[in-house]
Prior knowledge:
With 284 residues, the chain is an alpha/beta fold.
Amino acid sequence: MTITRRDFVKSSAGAVIGGAALGSRSAWAAAGKHPPGIQLYTVRDQLKKDFEGTLRDVHSAGFVEVEAAGYYDRTAPQFKQAVENAGLHLVSVHHALADLLQKGDELISYVHELGSSYLICSAPRAQDPARKDLTLDDWKWCAGQFNKLGERVKAAGMQFGYHNHVHEFEKHEGGIGYDALLNSTDPKLVTFEMDCGWVAVGGYQPAEYLNKYPNRISLLHVKDMVNDGSKWHSTILGRGKVDYSAIFAAAKNVKRYFYEQEEFEGSPTEALTASAEYLRKSGF
């Protein structure tokens, strides 16, 4: 379901955080909380129609930091300026491994010019690009590629990381892909952005990973999930099955987090404002 700019503005124009307009990173820091972030894939449809206006509306809904997934035909200076003009701060950027292997230098340079702190790999690939299903050996091969990319990204003054989906938790003889990545990557070169929703769908507890690997997971995707009887899909924070009270309690070393919702049952505007309010009340 798409969102019109008129509906977005109508719903979010008066949104404030906790009765005080904590609309800046410094205000959140002073309150001892993490600035609420959003993965811009959540509003991908609107960004295509009104890039600058949608960024302003995201800020009005209660978000302060953003993570990019696509640049909408803008140069790095243009993208960066639009984000800043909206009162937002870009922290992280997503790129698939296939693209990073093909044009890594170009992408690393672009992300550096954006001023981003993190370059996150958002999708793996098999050693043989003709295959879609990954074996445990493929995951270990990916880990090797991540270490190499991590060196290059670190040399550019940023941190490389990996964002999971659900297939990392498929069982193989010898373990699961997510554990292979954690155990086969160099902590000095590769961090992890754990998508809590997909971890839960995969049958594991995000809080347990945060407790077991307290220094490996620097970022979170805060995504709530429900099952409609046929498949899992994301929903408004606090209305799904993911226990975020336990996750936030365990996320002692997490530096950034980003709300993400990939589809909407009702108004997308309601989802953003309600989810921002959920994050405000979480105290994280």
